[in-house]
Structures are given as C-alpha cells and as structure tokens.
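USER:
Class, as today's exercise, take the chain set out below, and explain how the chain folds.
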Amino acid sequence: MSVGLSQRLVPDALWSLVAPLLPSFSSRPQGGGTAPVDERAVFTAVVYVLTSGCAWRHLPEAFGVSPATAHRRFSAWTRAGLWRRLHQAVLDELGARGELDWTSAIVDAASVRAKKGDR
C-alpha cells in the first residue's frame, strides 16, 4: 500500500490516539494461526473499509492484511468498545487544543406521536 494512502487514512496524530486504546493481541491458546499482524496496518485496512464502503471480501491485498483478519479485529474492537473510547479521545484532544466550538450543536432526536389516551 502506498505510504500516502496510509498516512491519509490514519495520520500519525490519529494513530497516536488509537494505539494505546487497542486491546492487546493474544495468541490463540490452541496454537496455530499466523504471526501477529501490524496493528496499524489492520487499523488502516478497517478505516479503508469503513470509509470507502468496500466489502470486507474486496479489501485490496495492498493493505497487507487479509479480509478475515481485518473483519475479525473490527469485530473484536467493536466488542471491546474501541470506537466509543476513540471518539472520546478525539473530542478530548480537540477540546484541549481549543478546537471545539460548543456554541451550537445538533442533537439527533425523533418524536413519535402519542397514542390516543396516552400522556
């Protein structure tokens, strides 16, 4: 994969926020499998799939990560709450730099008409 694409998808500043939040890799107790994969390469592949709309099975080989590995880590990271923690870390970093403007915000909401007789 080209360094330019990798840096655009996961710049060093983002990686410095992500790396400490990732659950540690543990080898399978039954043995077998392959050697651990570079976590940044896996994260970059996941970001590519999520931002491009590419199907997991069509992940380009240039990422150096199998589609199965990328999907398996995405699932594990989701179960571990990585995305919520990463969102909070990005907000904290932007807030610390004074780059958040809270003077206006959009809150997603839905309203449902009450059924007749309900209050």
Remarks:
- The chain has a mean pLDDT of 87.
- The helical segments are 3-9, 12-18, 39-52, 67-79, 82-96.
- The two ends are 58 Å apart (CA to CA).
- The first helix runs from residue 3 to 9.
